[in-house]
Amino acid sequence: MRIVTARRISQGFFLLLFGWLAVVSTVGDQLWQLRGWPVGWLLALDPLAALGTLLATGTVFGLLVWGLGVLALTFLLGRFFCGFICPLGTCQQIAGWLFRLRTGQDRRVADNRPSRVQGLKYALLAFLLVAAAGGSLQTGLLDPLPLLTRGLDLAVLPMANGGSGLLFPEARQVSGAWLLGGMLLAVLGLTALRPRFFCRTLCPAGALLGLATRFVPWRIGKSRAGSCGTCHLCEEYCEGGCAPSGEFTVAECVLCGNCLDRCPTGRIGFAGRPSVAGERALPDLSRRGAVVAVAAGALAVPLWRVGGLAGTGRNPSLIRPPGALDEDHFLARCLRCGLCMRVCPSGVIQPALLSAGIQGVWTPALDFRLGRAGCQINCIACGQVCPTAALRPLTLDERRGTGAFEDKGPIRLGTAFLDRTRCLPWAMNRPCIVCQEVCPVSPKAIYTRVVFEPVRGGRFLPVSVEGATVRLGTPLTAGRNLAGGDYFLRPADDARAEPRRITAAADTELALEKALPPGDPGQDLEVVVRLQQPHIDPARCIGCGMCQHECPVSGLRAVRVTNENESRSGPGRMLA
After folding, report:
1. Which contiguous run of DSSP H or E holds residue 67?
2. CA-CA distances (angstroms) from residue 291 to 38, 48, 141, 287, 556?
3. Per-residue pLDDT in tens (0 to 9) along the chain, 576 residues
4. Comparing C-alpha atoms, which of 383, 387, 337 is closest to residue 38?
């Protein structure tokens, strides 16, 4: 089998596998849903994720050992991951081929000549690895697999799903989806300038694998001396821009095999010796640029820490998913891959923009407005798919604080606080108990106290009172459905009198559940509303956000969750 054919079969397989795992990453019990599929396995093959996590934490979690295995094989085979596996590389290769369908040979050869800009990715790699060594894992910002996962799972698939319900029960909203999708489109669109533009100039994973090929025993190159002529077929279709007919740049070869397949003289081969036309290990890289990249990475982490965004200055509305490590360790592990966001059944896990500071861009955070509900207390999906344990894999007992975890109590995401200036029963004398009804914990963290408040425009002198029927001289102007069950009648200015529920209301007649007690015939009556004013017990609140999501007050909700008292906050919590 030709090497090009084998490469295309491999690329097609891994691209289809990547797409399939993206589709099945939806919570459910169907075969095509999240039912034992290893949805994080391809991310586990990412060598940059494995190395970055190792530098940031000193450990490699679970499946990421696969990534170190890929890195080890690269020392022997070269950048096979880029040419045979990487789905983003395959997408770029397809896009570049489409852009050049009608392009002449001279233009294609020019596009594939080595360029100094290809050294930029090595500077980016130095910055990211130094930052990771300082405890801040930022590799996921430009790592190809997390980048493609974010763009596909959080922008393309929700957009394609629309309101059809094919992949989601209903249309899904994603914070910053336009930016995530735009980045993916930009990566593919830049292939119009040069084939695999992202791979050649910006991909830190490609730079890492390129460094690993420094002493690779087997490589592509010219196996026989002599002039090649003027066909330039090898350079016309070179995906790496590594000049296979001249001074060969080993680190840039992605093993596409096009030069081997198209060389009419057979002078280019795959052998265990250097190219007879000469080699260089890396593309031109400015020493000054490398020094600046290392210095920037070394300074970035302490500058972020001075900013205090991970400590007392952290945004109180920044709420992490259940099982999240403390903020420092969380940022040292999170790849920004988006898997937790994709599997969340309520869509409440969203990519953070600047709410987590520059250090936390694209990391997962809970947004109770965009989700279809709050964070469901019986759901532990996000921690089960996290490839680095930035979100610990929880059991249902640990999440709910039952069984062996009864003494510790449930996992707390934060605490809900009531804004009485916006709450309907507190500020507007309108009946509402939605937050108390949807509170999922037992006993409920939200409880109510009943008060009766006079209704504006509801005071009148009755024409007659006959048992449970009260006749009015003029219609009331309360502007409310008095027969809704929350409105009562009582003697005016007598808060001690027992109110009588209004069961029916006509223009000038009210029917009561019970007759009014005997009173002064000339005494005014007043309509009062029964209000169940909510209160929050912080000792029971787990910060699930159900109350905030369902609060009927549009705009700024009357009940809002902050990260106060979260389980991962440690000492200094509101409640010990």
Report:
1. helix 65-77
2. 40, 21, 21, 6, 47
3. 688 899 999 999 999 999 888 888 877 777 777 777 888 888 888 999 999 999 988 887 777 888 889 999 999 888 999 999 999 999 999 999 999 888 888 888 888 888 888 888 988 999 999 988 888 888 888 999 999 988 888 888 777 665 445 555 556 778 888 888 889 999 999 999 889 999 999 999 999 999 898 888 887 877 766 666 667 788 888 888 888 888 888 888 898 888 888 888 777 877 777 777 777 777 777 677 778 888 887 877 777 766 655 556 678 889 999 999 988 889 888 999 888 998 888 889 999 888 887 888 889 999 998 888 899 999 999 998 898 889 999 999 999 999 899 988 899 999 999 999 999 999 999 999 999 999 999 899 999 999 999 988 888 888 888 888 999 888 876 667 888 889 999 998 887 888 999 999 888 889 999 988 777 777 889 999 999 999 999 999 999 999 999 999 988 999 999 998 998 876 556 665
4. 387
Classify 224 as helix, strand or coil.
coil
| Alpha-carbon gap, residue 327 to 333, rounded angstroms | 10
Q: Note whether 64 and 40 are within 8 A (CB).
A: no
The Cα 517–Cα 468 span in angstroms is 10
Residue 511, strand partner residues: 469, 504
Q: How far, in Å, are 233, 326, 410, 477, 546 from residue 539 at the CA level? A: 72, 21, 11, 43, 17
Dist. CA 29–CA 224, nearest whole Å: 59
Distance CA 443, CA 533 (A): 17
CB 462 within 8 A of CB 522: no
User: Which of 395, 383, 285 minimizes the C-alpha distance to 343?
Assistant: 383
Q: If you count them, how many residues does the chain have?
A: 576
Peptide bond into 443 cis (omega under 30): yes
CA dist 419 and 214 (Å) reads 62
3-state secondary structure 305-357: HHCCCCCCCCCCCCCCCCCECCHHHHHCCCCCCCHHHHHCCCCCEEECCCCCC
238 burial class (0-12, 13-18, 19+ CB within 10 angstroms)? buried
Q: Which residues contact 321 (CB under 8 A, 6 or more apart)?
A: 340, 344, 349, 364, 365, 366, 375, 382, 383, 391, 413
CB atoms within 10 A of CB 511: 15
Euclidean distance between CA atoms 332 and 514, whole angstroms: 66
- Sequence letter at residue 132: A
**Could you tell me the pTM of the whole model?**
0.86
How is residue 32 written in tokens?
């095509």
What are the structure tokens assigned to 218, written together?
């087997």
